[in-house]
């Protein structure tokens, strides 16, 4: 058995403070990029990144996070969670510094992948340190306080990004992570003992390589389809097939291990497996619709980054209110009676983007975002708590790894598919407005609505900018419809998986 180091109350509170600072930093980073996407797409103010490059800038972080996180906990058991935590902070800060001064979209994508590696090291170690530091009733209270950091990061991220983009260059949204990570690293070094488990889980290098390679190949094929506007090409379906084969190999390897870091057997359990698939489909929709929303507010509607950040606050406030509300309603009725209708409402709110346009009043957009955040919060919190608590204690770590990996996988595939649908539909919709324009102008306008607006301003063709806005809104409507369908399927999976036995 591992020896629990009893820390003084004051020191435990300081440890909790350090952990919350790190958690807020990670949640901030997850939200500030969505506010910065429109700026990064601008050839003048940003990098002139195309939709595919922005999908990779968002997805590279999530890919590294999803592929490494389930192995990082096992590393912490061997070398100590403080050591892994500190290494993660250093890697995250280094990736943030690189991203801030990236000289092009390719460098930004690589830097975001490095930041994902840092987050993958930080997150399991952060949770392990929390569990080691607190026991009994104090642990429950600490977890409750710690969980508020996600809401703080979600609410503050868009506003902070809007302020930084309004006063500084785009790299400032990444540079802000560096001093925060430095302070957290100092706090970890002074306050946190190097907790390590006496029962060491085996490392899983084969699973790690297969999962990352499979996800990268799959996502590459999905994003490539949007760049070439076709699914029949070999450079589209080939990587998709390779990715699926590698992921199947990953499952086979994990099934052969006695103590796998990612245990596919857990997915055979009806409640745990179905609930996690439903959450993965929900996160698919959330990631895709968030990607659309960034370009809709700042590009089509012309909001400043600060205005767009403030406009997104209702989503975070809704999620903050939805989690405790959902928990109370579950205690009164049942998880199925609360989560299935809430997820259906979340799907409909995503589909609601199919009815907004260039003249939609802001108040209706805010209502849509509030309902979306509220319904999502009512699903994720209660369902996650039920899935983990339904497992035996000895399977809690493996269950957490499965849950987090599926969530990140759903998010990265949502960005890839959502962005690809938007690109294909946009290119088809803008084509009729390009007749008579010079070839280079046509090529640039086909890339994205952002590129079309930029070239329209350069050649004094406001009609092209209006056509780009209309094409983008049409693409968003089509994409929102498909996203809503996927989320409704997730609600159906939840309905079946949470049914009562017999």
How are the secondary structure elements laid out?
Layout: H1 9-41, H2 51-79, H3 81-100, H4 105-133, H5 136-167, H6 172-175, H7 177-191, H8 205-228, H9 234-256, H10 270-300, H11 305-311, H12 313-332, H13 335-351, H14 362-389, H15 396-430, H16 439-447, H17 449-458, H18 462-497
Helix pairs in contact: 1-4, 1-5, 1-7, 1-10, 2-3, 2-4, 2-8, 2-15, 3-4, 3-7, 5-11, 5-12, 8-9, 8-15, 10-13, 10-14, 10-15, 10-18, 12-13, 12-14, 13-14, 13-18, 14-15, 15-18, 16-17, 17-18
Verbal overview:
- It comes from Kribbella ginsengisoli.
- Keywords: Membrane, Transmembrane, Transmembrane helix.
- This is MFS transporter.
- This protein folds into three domains: 1-202, Up-down Bundle (Growth Hormone, Chain: A), CATH 1.20.1250.20; 205-256; 268-502, MFS general substrate transporter like domains (Growth Hormone, Chain: A, Up-down Bundle).
- It contains 18 helices and no strands.
- Helix 1 runs antiparallel to helix 7 and helix 12 packs antiparallel against helix 13.
- It has 502 residues and is mainly α.
- Helix content is 80%, strand content 0%.
- The model has no long low-confidence stretch (mean pLDDT 84).
